[in-house]
Design goal:
Length: 95
């Protein structure tokens, strides 16, 4: 177990969670309403980055660093997905 966090850390984590949650909801709306496929993919990529941020804030709040491994893996998978989609668009555009 870790020592209890200071009130400033608790407050900052709460504010960060509100901002990240608002960004996540905005990206989700863009994912649903996006006029084109690239808009939806960018929204999905943004959502994955925001989830990494949520995991990082949770790590700071709880003091358990094991969650950082999950955030790193999620970030790498999201990056690879974005690169794969960009390659798909490049190949589709050249035909």
């Amino acid at each position: 177990m870790s020592a209890p966090a200071s009130p400033v850390i608790v407050w900052a984590c709460a504010v960060a969670l509100v901002f990240l949650g608002t960004g996540f909801l905005s990206a989700f709306v863009r994912l649903l309403r996006g006029p084109s496929l690239p808009d939806r993919v960018v929204a999905l990529d943004l959502m994955s980055v925001l989830v990494v941020g949520l995991i990082a804030v949770h790590t700071v709040r709880t003091g358990q660093t094991v969650y950082l491994d999950v955030a790193i893996v999620l970030g790498l998978i999201a990056f690879l997905g974005t690169v794969a989609f960009a390659r798909y668009l490049t190949l589709r555009g050249s035909k």
